[in-house]
Amino acid sequence: MKLYFATDVHGSEVCWKKFLAASKFYEVDTLVLGGDMTGKAIIPIISQGGDDYKVTLLEQVTILHGKEEVDRMVQTIQNRGYYPYVTDPDEVQALVSTPGRQDALFMEQVLKTIQRWMDYADAKLAGTGIQCFVCPGNDDVFEIDPVIAASKYVRSLEGEVVTLDEHHEMANSGWSNPTPWNTHREEPEEALLKRLEDIISKVKNPSQAIFNFHAPPFGSGLDEAPELTKDLRPAYAGRSMIPVGSHAVMKMIDKYQPLLGLHGHIHEGKGTRKYKKTLCVNPGSMYEQGMLNGLVIELKPQKVGNYLLTTG
Amino acid sequence: MSDVSLFVRKASGLVRAWSVFDAFIYSTFSINLITLGLFIFSYCYYFGGSLISGVVIGAIFTIFEVIVYASLISAMPRAGGDYVWQSRILNRAIGFILAVTGWWFILWLWTPLYGQMLTYEVYTPLLAIAGFKDAALWFLTNTGQFVGMASVCLIVFIYIAIGMKWYARIQKFCFWGGLVGLAIVFGLLLFGNHDTFVANYNSMAPMFGAQGGDVYAATMQAGADAGTVAGPLFPLAIGASMLLVPMLTFFNLWPNWGSTLYGEVRGASDYKRNFMGMFMAIVVTTVGAVIFFLLIGKTIGWDFYNNSNGAFWNWGFGYTTTPPPLPIWPYPALFATFLVKSPAIMFIVVLLMSLWWFGWSGTLFLSSTRVIFAAAIDRMLPEWVSKIEPRTKTPLFALLLMVIPALIISYLYAFKIFNFNTLALDATVVIAITFFGSTVAGIIMPWRAKDVFDGSPIAKYKVPIWLGWIVTIAYGLFSIYLIYISFKYGWSVLSGLSAVAAGGTTWFVVLMLAILTIINAVILIWIFFHVVKGITASQAMPVITLAGLIFLGFLDWLLVMWFWDPQTADGIASYAIGWSNVNSMIFMLINYIVAAAIYFGFSAYRRRQGIQIEKVYKEIPVE
User: Do B455 and A60 touch (CB under 8 A)?
Assistant: First the structure.
């Protein structure tokens, strides 16, 4: 079987569309999206009266004139992974000053976007026979799970083991070890270890399995991120790179030696690493540029076949 | 309130702004005044014109390089630099071949250069000051030079083994320590006087292997015999100084070395930070160079400095069998310490100055190992090259791919086989060609990678269309000039070959250059029309395109000068790496042939394996 894996699209509309189009482009029969599907920011498009709107994208202020320009900007913002929100100065004021308003708006935008993505996927995948799996990651709120569960053709796999074909099962988790941002699906290494053990216990033949674990193994080189100062600034202008992956994931790889480890989480950590017979891969992420980093891989009985990391 | 433009939620990766000063430190090490700068200034003894003008002109054009690279980094961060920019925007073969030659192969040649600087600026002066004159002078022998070059590999290996986390810390320590050393050197030169320097030079020279007597006068004479014609610092003589510029790029073309940081959800400020880090490095280093020149002129004597260089290199290149009166490399920082005559102080100051070398040398294989990894990830090299040795956590195989060829080239360089010791500037040329590729990518990016550009922080950086047209037309006119001079130089060389009964290899090299000259003309014209079409359609001139056109013109001029190598006023080949140095041309050609062989060979091999290698950078079409 031939599988395509991408991860960390973080709300990028074009990356989601590319993910679904990858099946045809790379001629694969299974699509797997690693964690962190949701965006990190809302960009307000603020009415200035009449047909004029003001938007600040990437610290660049733009005045938009009319619906066509607004629609174009909405698409640009969505493709970059942010949530565009057409609003007015009063509502912006309320968002700033009312506790909980921003959280509520985020939730609304996240769910609306995920629903749109599922609708798009259902339309695209209908009748193709393509398997499509996703696995929310540490940055993803739990509320998206039922939205995905309601999809006809996209299956969410958190905590599950799925049989891909007669030879290969895939164990899945989007949970990560602790981050400086205290995100939604992160936990101490001990708890993560237990979680992963519980999932793997459902695998019939771990040595033939795929571990789709969002966090990369600690010290693998797939987990190198800029060292941060106490106030979350990259130290030494980002040139000091340190391993931030998961010891629990490393232990699981070491203990069970699956065929393949699929990871993400650390966008800078693009690469492959072989541990004994396990090939671990982090395709990295360039979602902000609308580029979809991914892995095309053949799975053969007892072994991994050809593979290629792509920038699509 | 009206400033609210963004709401962020709890999510990983949202970091705050990083320090421009830290980026400045890294960039300053990359255009290292003490190592690269002083090394290449010492080569300039046979050029007329003013070094001040040469350094400043080069720096001005390098600012446009900084704009292009800061823009590319902001638009396509975390992409792996030149390799991915070119692969994505131009073509995968171009991206691979130019990145592999510019960031991997040619670093083999940088190893002996780093080694020479290590022996000239660290081993020899420190050993001599410590009283080990014979050991110090041994490092100037061919074997000693080779040992110095081999020790570079060991030092860099240690840096890579300890990792970027510790190297970044060492670099910062070296920066501050080196700065203290530089301040002392400047202070000594500022408050010292020429007469004291001459007296102390003569009395201390035997400590460094001189025979004694009036070594100062003997050095002046040896320099004159070597054909030293260096111009004074003033007048600035802009025209006469232009020939210096391609020489000086050896030191000031590299502010962009390794800048790839980018923060999520912020955009323009990171562009500005990237730009400022590199820009300030150029400005501060250039100002530092000018101050150094002035202080050398004031206390050491400008003529003496250049004659020292002439005497040293004339012997080093084998143009004379008479060694220079002072057999060591004329290191201005060491000369400054002659003013105090205290071996303890001299040792401390030279040791502090050596931190400029130690803070910079780690970059030698860092970029190369990254490119090797990137190529392996793209399946263009075997998987094993990116393996990490578990005990030392080092990419052992990637390092071996650097170290073994680097040692071979170091041996050729140290023992002057095939005149490898004349190829120093090749190390700049090959990387400049890589930058050429990225600059072309930057120029056409707004139209060729429209979606990426439009969604990037640099999309809003545009200049008025009238200015765009002025720069485009100026670029077009300058392209005509470049085509004219390259054809003129080429014709002059071709028509002169028969008269000198040139050998087959020379003919081959010149004909190859002639073909490249035609290809270059086509590229220049193609870019002109591409830009005209682009700005006509969009009625806008992006800053990256504007800066790219200016920098490309500069780079292209450098390439014409390096390859066709016009003669100085004294009838000497200006850079001695172009058509008249067949070994240089063949060496560079071999680099490109090997890169192309790897590219096409591995592409074919992967296709045979059933891997869709051509799709590695192809954009997935969205229906």
Answer: no
